[in-house]
Amino acid sequence: MADELRRRWRNWSGEQRCRPLLIQRPRTREGLIAAVLAATARGRSVKVAGSGHSFSGAALTDGAMIDAGLLDRVLDQDAAGLVKVEAGITLGALNRRLDRRGLALESLGDIDRQTIAGAISTATHGTGARFPNLSSQVEAVELVAADGSLVALDAGTDGDGLRAARVALGALGAIYSVTLRTVTNFRIDRTDRPRPLAEALAALDELVDGRDHFELYAFPHTETALCRESTRTQAPAAPPSPAAAFAREVVVENWVAGAMARIARHVPAAIPTLSRLAAAGTGRTRKLDRSFRVYASERRIRFTEMEYAIPRGHAREAVERVLEIAARPEYRVCFPIEVRFVAGDDAMLSPAHGRDSAYIAVHHDHLGDWQPYFDAVAASMADYGGRPHWGKRHSLTAAELAGLYPRFDDFRAVRARLDPEGAFANPYLERVLGPAGAGGGRRRR
Questions:
Q1: 8 Å CB contact between 55 and 393
Q2: Which of 95, 195, 290, 347 has its CA 20 to 30 A from that of 147?
């Protein structure tokens, strides 16, 4: 049976909040089916929440919410390295369990708090010119439909269904399990080093193509970029001491950065100086450890974020434009611009669908006036056919998004087939995908 919780929910930063009629935590596949059926029998909408590590309203509902956190088992593994897991397992827990089996995911993002279902549903990605986003590693999905049936989607039986389900925003049903393609576990040798911004941008293609994984942090109001350069290896791990890791990843990257954000909030005139101090503090560091320990970062500072994927060839020009926007005093920007690179894939709603992409992320104080800055950056991304990250903030509508995704209508056809009555809809999905169901869906509570 499903455990019922208090009827309040909010995301990790506290910006997205709702009061569902009930929140249930199923422990089994049968419990998940029962929770879905109990809601749909009463005409209630159903939303599945993972760890809440998203900036969007994709999980919000005033109907029935299902917290998948107790669905966290590894269900199966085969000789080819396919691993089947329940939807609520977090990436951090999954990575540790895979490592004990001698396996790893080939590429990950820099946060490991998300559930696997939430991470794939929003097209979470890492960085590396040869590596597509996390959802590209999905070989099969099982989801519970509004009528309680268990729908199995894989390339052999329903290729379009799988290409839709790999990045589905929770619109197709309640994911029960995900089958992932894994590789032999490995280590990453990462060096973080400051470079002159102009030099880094001029050599961007060389830096990206010459490393397995590369990302860049450009500091507004400065001429400095922090370059994170990583190579995959089978060399023995040599992790930093716990004290050194805590000093760098918690004290400097979170406590000090958080203090700077608070100062910037109250003394905007200090922002250029604070940005220069932050850039000056980026010395050269090295980390050689198991891949999942290097991919993941410790994030304790609260902020809000927007991120767009654009064709890789426009990366340099786009970064220069965003830096010019971020330097305008009226936007009060004290966070660096983050730039990552991802190979194209074929998931219908992947922001990297059909094209190798550069992802440009901008951050702002979540208690500040972030909207004007994000609007200005979004306008510049539109010039490159930018597609927003589904787990971050954006203001685009279905009419605008349809022109950015070649298979947008194909996704809506799969949605109409798998959720014909719009049981899994909510206001966010209606904004970004349009009305649910074959006939436009019906209003649920």
A1: yes
A2: 347
- Spatial CA neighbour of 436 closest among 388, 445, 423: 423
Q: Which of 200, 223, 227 is nearest to 213 (CA)?
A: 227
CATH assignment at residue 346: 3.40.462.10
Residue type at position 72: D
Three-class SS state of 221: coil
Does residue 440 belong to any structural domain of this protein? Answer: no
Q: DSSP secondary structure string, 59-98?
A: T--SSEEEE-TT---EEEE-TTSEEEEETT-BHHHHHHHH
- The answer to whether residue 317 sits within a structural domain is yes
Structural domain harbouring 344: 187-388
Q: Are strands 46-49 and 64-67 parallel, antiparallel or unpaired?
A: parallel
**Residue 215 domain-assigned (yes or no):** yes
CB contact at 8 A, 50 and 11: no
Q: Examine residue 56 and state whether it is found in any structural domain, yes or no.
A: no
Tokens representing 195 are 């470079």
The structure tokens listed for 435 are 């009305």
